[in-house]
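User: Predict the complex with iron/sulfur cluster.
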Amino acid sequence: MRTEITKEELDIQRRWMAETAERSAALPAKPLAFVDTYGCQQNEADSEKLRGMLREMGYGFTETEAEADVIVLNTCAIREHAEMRILGNVGALTHTKKAKPGQIICLCGCMVQRPGMAEKIKRSYPIVDIVFGPHAVWRFPELLSRRLQQKKRLFATEPSEGAVAEGLPEYRQDGPKAWLSIMYGCNNFCSYCIVPYVRGRERSREAKYVLEDARKLALAGYKDITLLGQNVNSYGKDLEGPDFADLLRMVCDVPGDFLVRFMTSHPKDAGERLFRAMAESEKAARHIHLPFQAGSNRILAAMNRRYTREEYLAKVALARSYMPDVVLTSDVIVGFPGETEEDFADTLSLVEKVGFDSLFTFEYSRRPGTPAAEMENQIPKAEAQKRFDALTALQNRISGEKHAAYVGTTQKVLVDGFTGDERGPLNARTNGGRLVHLMGDKSLLGQYVEVEITDSTTWSLYGKLKEGGNQGA
Ligand code: SAH
Ligand code: SF4
Ligand code: F3S
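Assistant: Here is the predicted structure with iron/sulfur cluster placed in the model:
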């Protein structure tokens, strides 16, 4: 059941925001907030909403915990390592809070929605004032306001299938790139994955809201828009309206000079309609992130991925038949319970066969509450590490070769960052999303430029601005 948060409920939150804004205005100095985000782009997008609400409540922003009146840690639960790091950082806030006793510490996001986690925080982390899961982001104004009025700790982590809240304020990250959520949650229940348990069921935003946001972003001058969902190919199944392929075409039809990407598409649902829509839309970036997770059919079945190795390879071939130059990236897990040497060899051979431009390799992490956590034959850490290293070495070779093939070509790239790197202080991205380091002035930030690729490494490209290659803002 898809639930939309009503206008009345959101109006109540707006009243809480107005009340806190008045309180902030009466303070001798503007109160400051520190927002830190862990995990994936979905969390980044939620943090933009949290910042938007904080800004409306009269808060400024700081990068220093010690200065902050409100600290928000937006957490991730995807792997145990991520959680350990977050809990370590929460522990370290004990000192900050001691030095600034009125400080309000909020923990939100996927980790706190995991069964048992709220209790653990209640018991072991008394410095945390407000805890709320991904389903309660829209209720942040109320939670913060209540905490400002009374000393009681607040928890909003009750189980939920999730809802859709439209019209929350947003404060986007700097730069020419924007996230645009098109759906929330996941129904796939891959046997290793915690996401469906913490993010609820799949629910799509109505196309009219997505398009309204896309138009606003284009008008504001954003040059690179990423449509977000755990499985974007499920978009619209819960609504009467366009499916993902049509939505992509509609977003690409919005006037403006920008590229459209999407994350993530599940191989079981990606297909001809999508590849054709991409190929026929000039603004669709020639990049597909298509996580395969494992190369062996036995492991794919145990993971509940619902495609075979052969089907995956056929989809890659189909995508390439529509877009010969498409950049392919992927996620893979090594050391899934029961993964034999032979299964792992299948992963290596799939990687070799496809020739991904880059690969995100993860060691399997046991997530309590998921079916895989109960499976026999959990792989010892040392073995998983060995496989991780072997796969990384193979992919590094392939990425190196793929990058080397760019040398001598001309690419239109979007300058999206500035680093201190002497060999190329400007960071830019090709249409397919490959990283290019460039010499050049900060004033090129946010612009498309033509560059000649002069050198490459395993991880990135080096480029030189072409004469007259500045295409303007
Ligand atoms: N919805 C996306 C993935 C989101 S999570 C998809 O299905 O493609 C991002 C990646 O984290 C996954 O693709 C997977 O490779 C990895 N991952 C998820 N759960 C994991 C676990 N328990 N251990 C190790 N890696 C995991
Ligand atoms: Fe997790 Fe699978 Fe859903 Fe991706 S599709 S979020 S890996 S359950
Ligand atoms: Fe982490 Fe939640 Fe994303 S678990 S990877 S932040 S959906």
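The longest helix spans residues 381-404.
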